[in-house]
Amino acid sequence: MVIVEERMDSVDVLRLEGRLDASSANDLKEKVNDFAQEKRLNFVIDMAAIDFIDSSGLGSLVSSLRSVNKLGGDIKIASLKDAVRSIFELTRLHRIFEIFDDAEAAVKSFEV
Amino acid sequence: MQRKIKLVIDSDLENIALIGTAINKLCSLIPLSDEEAFQMELCVVEAVTNSIKHAYGYDSEHQVEINFVLSSEELTVDICDKGTPLDKELMEKKFKEPLECDDTDPDNVPEGGRGLAIINTIMDNVSYKSEKGINCLTMKKRFNLLVGGAKGPVNG
To answer: I need a surface site. Which of A6, B61, B86, B149 has the fewest CB within 10 A?
Structure first.
């Protein structure tokens, strides 16, 4: 999995590409933790280019959310493909995360 | 008539994408929608990940065998390893765990341990057998050649 970083209006947008599974789940957790240590606590995870996610990948999102929530930050999800969205719904995680159609809308939601 | 293919990988998490991609493509032979094919891939990935994590403790010196069997109305996938068998009681507990979670507080949401519950939710039948040092998780999914998402006959 590739993680492309972009800073938009004091929000870190992490654009994920490929497969978020057991082999890549730690990469995401480490990336979020690295930013959190620099007090960068608000994230949008853009999953437009994620073709596959499994329970380990979902676990990495939950773990990252907990970490930044404890420090007063938040993680919002953007651009889920239909099949990936179906797994969020199957595991009920669509009720834990705020999910947006695109990264720009997710970034704007931090302004409110 | 049954059609079968056996896939074998070294027990390295990096190899799971190979199996997942192959299973998704194989599912295009049967009348499943893209979403259902994704879910079949997910179940196989969860089971293979369990073998690598729990049966082999992340040791990549072993092998995981995946048998993909197509009959006229059913897909059967066996995931077999020769590592430490899963604890049956724990497994049954995991199977029965609901995927519901308390959405009022992320701290109440488990980070992991959803794999078997996901498999049990998606598949029509799941069983686990450990005999003579070989552990096999068998998953079955029925499909109807005449209904929904058909991409062509199995024998076409």
So the answer is: B61
Please tell me the distance in Å from B114's CA to the nearest CA on chain A: 6
Transcribe chain B into DSSP letters: --EEEEEEEES-GGGHHHHHHHHHHHGGGSS--HHHHHHHHHHHHHHHHHIIIIISTT-TTSEEEEEEEE-SSEEEEEEEESSPPPPHHHHHHHHH--S---TT-GGGS-SS--HHHHHHHH-SEEEEEEETTEEEEEEEEE--TTSSS--S-TT-
- B23-64: per-residue pLDDT in tens? 999 999 888 899 999 999 999 999 999 999 999 999 999 999
Count structural domains, chain A: 1
CATH of residue A65:
3.30.750.24
* Interchain CB contact of B102 with A (< 8 Å): no
Q: Any chain B CB within 8 A of the CB of A4?
A: no
**Minimal Cα–Cα distance from A56 to chain B, Å?**
6
Comparing CB atoms, the residue among B17, B106, B121 nearest residue A66 is: B106
CA closest to A92 among chain B residues? B100
Q: How do the domains of chain B map onto residue ranges?
A: 3-142
Query: Tens digit of pLDDT for each residue in B5-20?
Result: 999 999 999 999 999 9
CATH no., domain B3-142: 3.30.565.10
